[in-house]
Specification:
Arc Repressor Mutant, subunit A; alpha/beta
Length: 316
């Protein structure tokens, strides 16, 4: 209804009907009886109240979750879970802590006693592990070899052991580096009993958590620890992102690499077989990598922060 045709009596009537419906919880039939009109006219007045701006509907969450960005991210990429937190975009360590704690809350909500949890090493996954409450007896499976950084004591073994301690479930872990000098050594190491037993659990993994790195300096732990030759070769192959050791191009297509053959980590095919994989990226510069990961079909959930979510949603 155009503003020039809406007199003061009509405005008051529309507002009164809207108040009864949205604030008092009255049905359209009850409102029609009160005001002596048909329920169809009530419906038209409610439509007019929204279209004119007399009524504005907002869905808000009083905590740190940005429900609008979360819904947009979930819908854009067809995700099962998307949690975007609105926190100060300051230093990496602070963001990692915020995202890790949010991921811990999500995992505690969705995990069940029937699940088997897989963990691929990433600094955000380590932060999540430290924030987890008790889990319901969930077995935990290590998905990648150890890669520790000087500024943090946690390795993939530490993370799996910590989460299993909190759940009281079995810990399927192994001691091995993430990368080896050559593919033959990696193949031989995968045959070692403890590594083979852990990877035998992969078909049972129902939920998993991983990180996402942009294939650039300072944006991927794996990039920072790789040789100059590996960095160059993967760039030439079009690698944009690594999802805890699985490499993907900008359009999300998995990229086979010689480096992957030298790694003790799950493959793209094994990752694809996991029903629910949640990634926990942080840092706005990683937007192209996160977009690639979400396009890959490997990822079903994400926990991140608002500035990164906006950058992911804004196509270049």
């Amino acid at each position: 209804m155009a503003d020039q045709f809406r007199g003061p009596a009509q405005v008051v009537l529309t507002a009164s009907v809207a108040r009864r419906y949205y604030l008092d919880g009255r049905s359209k039939v009850e409102i029609a009886q009160e005001f002596g009109m048909s329920r169809f006219k009530v419906a038209r007045l409610l439509d007019d109240a929204r279209e004119s701006g007399l009524v504005r509907i907002e869905i808000r969450h009083p905590g740190e979750i940005d429900v609008d960005l979360s819904a947009r991210l979930r819908d854009r990429f067809g995700l099962q879970h998307a949690v975007v937190i609105d926190v100060p975009d300051d230093d990496a360590a602070s963001l990692r802590g915020h995202v890790g704690r949010a991921a811990a809350r999500l995992l505690a909500e969705i995990i069940t006693p029937q699940d088997v949890l897989g963990l691929a090493w990433a600094r955000a996954v380590s932060a999540m592990a430290r924030a987890l409450p008790a889990l319901p007896g969930t077995p935990v499976v290590q998905l990648s070899g150890a890669l520790s950084m000087p500024e943090g004591p946690d390795t993939s073994v530490d993370v799996v052991r910590e989460v299993a301690r909190r759940s009281g479930g079995a810990a399927h872990l192994f001691y091995a580096p993430l990368t080896l000098p050559d593919a033959a050594t990696a193949r031989a190491l995968r045959q070692q009993p403890e590594i083979a037993r852990a990877f035998d659990q992969l078909p049972s993994v129902t939920k998993a958590v991983a990180g996402v790195g942009l294939w650039e300096a300072g944006q991927s732990t794996l990039y920072d620890t790789a040789s100059d030759d590996d960095r160059r070769q993967l760039r030439e192959l079009g690698v944009c992102a690594d999802i805890s050791g699985v490499f993907v191009a900008g359009d999300g297509t998995p990229v086979p690499t010689e480096l992957a053959e030298r790694m003790i980590a799950l493959s793209a095919e094994q990752m694809q077989a996991i029903p629910e994989l949640v990634v926990v990226p942080y840092g706005t510069r990683k937007a192209p990598a996160v977009r690639a990961a979400l396009r890959s079909g490997l990822v079903s959930g994400i926990v991140t922060h608002s500035t990164l979510a906006r950058a992911v949603l804004d196509e270049p």
